[in-house]
Every structure is written in C-alpha cells, then in structure tokens.
C-alpha cells in the first residue's frame, strides 16, 4: 500500500554534516518514475535492445541473472528506455562486481545481508528528523510501524519502544475514533492501521488499552460505503487500501462486525461492516487479472496485496479467493510481475522493478498458495502443496544484490536512496520468501469470526536457498504484517494483546 | 508565540492550540520532526479554527499556507474543500491554483481527491470544463503513468458519461502512439470500451463481476456484444503488437477483448503463430497464447506442454515454477 505521502526520502539523521533538506514528496528532480531518464540519467541507452556487457560476473551466478532478456523488441519507447536503463544499472550489482557492494559474497555470488548497518539504520529511523521532513508529518504512525516491524524482522526487540510509542500515538487518536497522522489531524485508515499494528508489535495490556475500541468501531461504521467499500477518512477517497485497513483493524481489535446504529451505510440496507466488501474487491479485478485501487483502474501490486489480504481476513482463502477472483487470470498477472535479469517484482505491467513490491507482490504469493492448497487438514503444514510459484532465487538476488544501500537501509533500486518505507517492505519481502506460510485447522483464538486469519503458521524454508543462514529474518504474519500472534492469558477477547512478539532468537 | 499569525490583528481573537507531539520531560516520541517554526505556528492556528469549525476567508488563506508547507497534510485539504463550498467560492479560481500545485507535487493523493470533490459539484460543473482534459494531458506529459491522475480521469469519464466522447479515445491514441507500452493508457481504453456503464450497475473493472450470481470464470463477459467494435479493437491490438511483439500490454488487452466478446483464443492462432517459428521466438506472449489454444484442444495437449516448456527452459525461465504449474494443469486435464 503506498503511504499517504511517498516516504521515500533519504534519512539525513545519519548524515548530519549535510544541511540540505530532503527532497519534497514531489520534487521534480527526485520524484520516482517521473520523466524519462531523470531517475537513471547516468545510463543513457539509445536503443531498447541492450547488449550483454563484457565484464565477468562472480562465480555461482546463473546466466539468467547476468544477461539481458533473450527476447527484446527493437522499437524503443519511453517505457523500454527506462527498462533498459534499469537493467544496465542493476547488472553490475547482480553480477556482484559493483564497487559499492559490501559482501562478503557467498558461493552463489550473493552478498550477505548487512545486518548491523540495517539495524543501525532502523534504530535511527525512529529518532528525530530535521525540519525538511515536515512532509512526513501526516505519516508519523507509519514511521513508527516501518521502524518497529523492521527491527522485529531483523532480530531486535521492538518492545523496548513501548512507552515511547504510546506517547507518540496518544495525541494522534481522536475522541471520535481512530488515529490521524498526529495531533489535530483527522482520523485516517492508513494512520490507524499503522498505529494498531505498531501497538501490536510492542504488545501488552497498556498498548491495548490506549485504543478507544468503541469509538474506533463507530468511526469505521461512518467510513462504510453503500457499494461495500470504505473511504480512507471522512471526506476522503474510497479505495482498496481502506478495505484492507478496516479488516486488519477489525480483526486485531476484535470489534463487532455489525455496523453501528445510525450510520449512513445502514440506510443503504447494509447491516455489517463486511457486507458487500468481497463483491467490491471482486469488481477491482481487471482484464489483466490483477487488482486496481478502485474499480476500473489499472492493476497494481500494492492494491493486489490489500485486496487479497482483505479477502483472506474475511474468510478462508480457498473459499474467498476462489469465490471472488478469477484465479488463473490473477496468477498469470502476478507471475508476470517478476522480471529477469533483475529478479525483483514490478507493481504494474511495463513498469520497473521496485524493492517495495518484494512485499506487496511477494506478499500475495503465500495467500494464493494457501488458496490453491485448499482446506487445512491438520495442525501442521498440508501434506501436499503447490509450493512457491515464483522464483525465490530471483527475489533473493534482487534484494541482497541491488536493494542494500552502502551505509545501511534498503531501497527501491540501485541509484535510489534508502528510506524506512523501503527498508521495512524489502525486509518483509525477504522474510516472507524465507518462510513457508500455511494455515492449520486451529485458530489461536476461540473466536468463530475470522478464525482463518488466526490459523496461520510459518516454518523456515531450508532447501534451495541462495542466501546464508545468517541472513535469515524473523517471520511476519502474512495478513497483518506483525509478529505471529500466539495465545497468552492476558485478557479476554483482547486480540491485540495476543499479538505479543515471540522472544527474539539469540544469534 | 511570535510569528506571522501571532502578530496579525486579524487573528488576534484566536487562541492557537499548541502542538502535542507526545514529547514530555521523560519520554521522547518516535520519529519526531524538528518542525519549522512557521509550520508549528500555522498548524496551531489550524487546530484552533478547525476545532471551532470556522468557515472563513482567513481560514481559507490559512489552509493555503499549510499546504505550501506540507502538501501531504490530508486534513487541511478536506477542511479547505468544506470552506470553499461553505463560502460559495469560485471553483474555477480554485482549479487554476490547483493546476499549479498539481504540477509541482506530482505524487500526491490529496490533490487529486480534492479536485474530484470540487468537480463533483453539479452546481458548479454541470459539464466538464473545456480545459480539464488539456490539463490532464499536461500532467501525462510529466508522467504518463501517474496512477492518481488516471484514477481521476476514470472518475471523470463515469461522472460526465464520457465513454464515447471522441476526445477520450483521441487522447488514448496519442498516448499509445507516443509509447505503445503505456499500460495505463491500455487500461483506460479497456474501461472506455468494455466496463459497465449502466446507472444501476456498480463500477467495475470487468463486466459481469461482483454479483452473487456470477462466477469468477465468467468475469468480463458482456451480455450484449458489438462485434464490429470488438473486431476493430482486436485489429488495433494487432497493429500495436506488430510494432513491438514482446509488449505484454496489447496481448492482454486483446485477451480481455476476446473474453468480453465470449470468443475463444483460437481465432488468434494464426496471428500468434507469426511470432513463433520453431525455436525462433519473437514474443513469449505469442507462445503462451498458442499453448493455451492447443491446451483447449485435447489432442494437442503435448504441443501445449512443449511450448510452455520452451518458455520455462529458454525464453522466460525466471517464471519456471509458474510454467511448471501450468504444465501440470494441462497434464491433469489430459
């Protein structure tokens, strides 16, 4: 899900010698995917057809990741120029011969995860920002979430930030329900989602008690639309992000499914927050098979994740996905998001790879795999599975070779600066791909509603990896983006409190 | 507080509400920002006027100041829209200002929703303003795949019922002529031609979708088909494919057209075959389409498997696991 504002800016905290403010969200010089050549101006390509370069790659790297694609059209257009330039820029990184790469490289020619650098970057991302970052003022709950989720995945203990997080979020909550970006900002589903997830990551009764659940429920009811979807805030736009955020909040906070009395949506004949929601998502599937932000627009990877995760929260994916999505069409589009030689995912047809889609597109795969594997039979992995339908090797190579910034943090692609949005979601993609996520026939809650959402488990994948054991990350829940909930005895019905992170492994 | 607002007699009656960012003596909030003093001041006055739900000229001016300091402040945009309507301001003037802001901040959700809120006023805009589409083309000249702008344009089409307006298809033709790989333009074209437009049918990317009575396999099927239009669109896609056969966009557009018309892929067998001569492949999409045509014909299952194997092993090995899955599907069916 794209953040409220592009959180794609270089942290200056680590580079305090610079007095330059960061680029604004839409600075023409840095805005992503803006004008042909701006983001990749150092590698001019005159023709769409790229020639294989002569420099030899490190040992252990298959040709698939060191050569341009075997089928290329001669016709050059803006899209193909950008694509060619991106490949040219990625190739030295994929070959492991770019001087800025840190290594050490393993037998597959893949550099190690710069764990310590990323940990330092993530800790830093939770500290003070200089004045140029004022454009992130409406995204502060996101900043907390990205930092805390990133730290959890990389093996640090985010619960140490509990009291600071509570202090941060208290003034952002509105009496009329929900969280805004900060004090005096109206409640927004994106901010509320990030706030609830952050609280779930730090866990505990106090975190849970910060949230006015009754007001939250009433506010969600006011966002419900007659067509089944949700506005992201009162007076704001309606889109698939809203649908997913509502379902994540509803499930984690164990809120009533019924619509509150006297809300507008009741006049349209709706009774539940979930009424018409799956049908709304169904109408967002496009002729390409992917899913758009709202009905009738172009298929997009971030919205695909929101829609699929939302369907999988609504009910078992083998029922909800097969009932509401044309799965063969969806699979075809999703699979086409992975490119070679880059190995990473793009968000749309004829757009470039971007590390953040490691999560948005990568995160669709476990949900689809679970839908294809069918009804869970036991409290363990299914006896047969379709397995990974994408190239885990390709994604590993893109993330570790192309997305690690020299001084820590992860990024969209070579040539881009890291930021906490990309650091979180690139790590989330790496983590998801390192684990096999499956559902069991048991839920960690006794609740009958949304039992399927709480029946997921994960186990590390041990075969066919091109990364080292020391590069392994902690798993995140595939629908919530938080540590796996586990049963605790800290309160009845308090689902959020169930979501206490498991103790980190010692390394 | 000593600043622009504090020293302005016009604001003397307002008591600003100072920022609470969670800081206190013991605890530092997370990801705090060292706000510029003018932002601290402007947002303190904003909280005060919003708390009083003030609809005034000075509040309108204040929203502009806050937007200039932080255009991603979604709250201020929503407040601004309310004030504009409450004071019955000229929305034409607002649009002119908005155009400048939009070109400055290309990747911004709020601007485009704000524009939609204004444009949805039938009282102010009974028909689409003449320069509206010119401005969108100006935006596309900066970023021809800007998702927010395309989302807004889709809304415009539905709001003003522009599906058959010549300008829509002219702009799409121009954008595809400039870059035949512009998938956003292809998507918009599909919406113009095949998305539901009936008043009583909710908006949908595919016809026949999101209804309890339909199954996902039938998504996209039109109840009534204009075969001439379908033929013309298929020809349009073929011309685009000839220019760049490995361009995914027109291939999948054509599949969507055939799906809408309830026609099989079989009629494209000859055309697709032109891009696959034995092992010499000019388009992986042609190979995939041929494989599907063969798979539908039970007796040619092996030929289908051979083609998918070609993709898996030679032309598109990054998707090996997916091609294996597809091969398995055919083997199960056979």
TrEMBL record, chain A:
Species source reads: Penicillium chermesinum
GO BP term, pick one? prenylation
Q: Which cofactor does it need?
A: Zn(2+)
In this protein, which residues make up the domain named Prenyltransferase alpha-alpha toroid? 113-482
Task: Identify the stretch(es) annotated as Disordered.
Answer: 1-51, 57-76
**Identification of the protein by name:** Protein farnesyltransferase subunit beta
This enzyme's EC code(s): 2.5.1.58
UniProt lineage: Eukaryota, Fungi, Dikarya, Ascomycota, Pezizomycotina
GO MF term (any one)? protein farnesyltransferase activity
Task: Please tell me which top-level EC class this enzyme sits in.
Answer: transferase
Bias-annotated ranges (Polar residues):
27-36
The record's family statement is:
Belongs to the protein prenyltransferase subunit beta family.
Q: Quaternary structure?
A: Heterodimer of an alpha and a beta subunit.
GO cellular component terms, semicolon-separated:
protein farnesyltransferase complex
Query: Keyword annotations for this protein?
Result: Metal-binding, Prenyltransferase, Repeat, Transferase, Zinc
Q: What does this protein do?
A: Catalyzes the transfer of a farnesyl moiety from farnesyl diphosphate to a cysteine at the fourth position from the C-terminus of several proteins. The beta subunit is responsible for peptide-binding.
What InterPro entries does the entry give?
FTB (IPR026872), PGGT1B-like (IPR045089), Prenyltrans (IPR001330), Terpenoid_cyclase/PrenylTrfase (IPR008930)
SUPFAM superfamilies, per database record? Terpenoid cyclases/Protein prenyltransferases
Cofactor mode of binding and number, as noted: Binds 1 zinc ion per subunit.
From TrEMBL, chain B:
This chain belongs to the protein called: Protein farnesyltransferase/geranylgeranyltransferase type-1 subunit alpha
What PROSITE patterns does its record include? PFTA
Q: Does the keyword Cell division apply?
A: no
Which enzyme class, named as a word?
A: transferase
Q: Which organism is it from?
A: Penicillium chermesinum
What protein family does this chain belong to? Belongs to the protein prenyltransferase subunit alpha family.
**What top-level branch of life does the organism fall under?**
Eukaryota
MF GO annotations: CAAX-protein geranylgeranyltransferase activity; protein farnesyltransferase activity
EC number, UniProt record: 2.5.1.58, 2.5.1.59
């Amino acid at each position: 899900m794209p953040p409220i504002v592009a959180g794609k800016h270089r942290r200056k905290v680590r580079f305090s010698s610079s007095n330059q403010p960061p680029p604004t969200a839409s600075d023409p010089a840095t805005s992503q995917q803006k004008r042909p050549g701006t983001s990749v101006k150092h590698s001019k390509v005159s023709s769409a057809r790229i020639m294989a370069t002569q420099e030899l790659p490190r040992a252990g790297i298959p040709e698939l990741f060191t050569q341009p694609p075997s089928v290329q059209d001669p016709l050059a257009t803006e899209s193909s120029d950008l694509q060619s330039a991106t490949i040219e820029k990625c190739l030295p990184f994929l070959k492991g011969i770019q001087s800025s790469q840190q290594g050490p490289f393993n037998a597959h020619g893949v550099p190690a995860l710069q764990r310590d650098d990323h940990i330092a970057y993530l800790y830093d991302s939770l500290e003070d920002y200089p004045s140029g970052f004022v454009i992130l003022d409406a995204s502060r709950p996101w900043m907390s979430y990205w930092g805390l989720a990133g730290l959890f995945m990389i093996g640090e203990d985010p619960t140490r930030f509990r009291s600071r997080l509570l202090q941060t979020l208290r003034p952002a909550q509105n009496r009329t329900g929900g969280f805004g970006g900060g004090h005096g900002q109206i409640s927004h589903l994106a901010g509320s989602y990030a706030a609830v997830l952050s609280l779930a990551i730090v866990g505990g009764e106090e975190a849970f008690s910060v949230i006015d659940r009754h007001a939250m429920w009433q506010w969600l009811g006011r966002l419900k639309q007659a067509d089944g979807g949700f506005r992201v805030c009162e007076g704001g736009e309606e889109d698939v992000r809203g649908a997913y955020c509502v379902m994540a909040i509803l499930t984690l906070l164990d809120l009533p499914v019924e619509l509150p009395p006297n809300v507008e949506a009741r006049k349209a004949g709706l009774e539940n927050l979930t009424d018409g929601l799956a049908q709304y998502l169904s109408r967002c599937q496009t002729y390409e098979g992917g899913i758009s932000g709202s009905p009738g627009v172009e298929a997009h990877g971030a919205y695909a994740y929101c829609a699929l995760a939302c369907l999988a929260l609504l009910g078992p994916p083998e029922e909800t996905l097969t009932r509401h999505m044309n799965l063969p069409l969806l699979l075809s589009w999703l699979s086409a998001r992975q490119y070679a030689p880059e190995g990473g995912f793009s968000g749309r047809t004829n757009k470039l790879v971007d590390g953040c889609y490691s999560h948005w597109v990568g995160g669709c795969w476990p949900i689809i795999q679970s839908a294809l594997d069918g009804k869970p039979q036991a409290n363990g992995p299914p006896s047969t599975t379709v397995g990974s339908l994408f190239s885990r090797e390709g994604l590993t190579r893109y993330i570790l070779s192309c997305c690690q910034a020299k001084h820590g943090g992860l990024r969209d692609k070579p040539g881009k600066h890291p930021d906490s949005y990309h650091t979180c979601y690139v790590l989330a993609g790496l983590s998801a791909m390192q684990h096999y996520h499956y559902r069991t026939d048991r839920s960690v809650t006794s609740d009958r509603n949304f039992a399927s959402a709480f029946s997921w488990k994960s186990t590390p994948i041990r075969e066919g990896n091109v990364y080292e054991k020391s590069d392994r990350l902690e798993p995140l829940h595939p629908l919530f983006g938080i540590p796996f909930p586990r049963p605790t005895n800290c309160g009845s019905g308090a689902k959020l409190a169930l979501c206490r992170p498991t103790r980190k492994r010692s390394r | 507080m000593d600043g622009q607002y504090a020293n302005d007699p016009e604001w003397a009656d307002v008591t600003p509400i100072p920022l609470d960012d969670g800081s206190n003596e013991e605890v530092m909030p997370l990801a705090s920002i060292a706000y510029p003093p003018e932002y601290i001041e402007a947002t303190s006055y904003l909280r005060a006027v919003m708390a009083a739900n003030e609809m005034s000229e000075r509040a309108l001016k204040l929203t502009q100041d806050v937007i200039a300091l932080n255009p991603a402040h979604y709250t201020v945009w929503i407040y601004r829209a309310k004030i504009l309507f409450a004071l019955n301001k000229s929305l034409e003037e607002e649009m002119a200002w908005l155009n400048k802001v939009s070109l400055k901040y290309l990747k911004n959700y709020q601007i485009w929703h704000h524009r939609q809120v204004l444009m949805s006023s039938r009282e102010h805009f009974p028909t689409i303003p003449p320069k509206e589409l010119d401005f969108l083309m100006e935006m596309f000249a900066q970023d021809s795949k800007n998702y927010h702008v395309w989302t807004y344009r889709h809304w415009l089409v539905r709001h003003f019922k522009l599906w058959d307006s010549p300008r829509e298809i002219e702009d799409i033709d121009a954008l595809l002529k400039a870059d035949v790989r512009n998938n956003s333009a292809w998507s918009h074209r599909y919406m113009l031609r095949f998305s539901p437009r009936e008043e009583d049918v909710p908006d949908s990317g595919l016809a026949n979708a999101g209804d309890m009575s339909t199954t996902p396999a039938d998504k996209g099927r039109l109840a009534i088909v204009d075969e001439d239009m379908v033929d013309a669109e298929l020809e349009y896609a073929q011309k685009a494919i000839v220019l760049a056969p490995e361009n995914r966009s027109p291939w999948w557009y054509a599949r969507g057209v055939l799906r809408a018309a309830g026609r099989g892929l079989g009629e494209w067998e000859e055309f697709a075959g032109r891009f696959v001569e034995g092992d010499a492949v000019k388009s992986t999409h042609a190979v995939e389409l041929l494989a599907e045509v063969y798979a539908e014909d039970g007796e040619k299952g092996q030929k289908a498997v051979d083609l998918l194997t070609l993709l898996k092993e030679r032309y598109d090995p990054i998707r090996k696991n997916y091609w294996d899955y597809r091969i398995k599907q055919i083997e199960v069916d056979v």
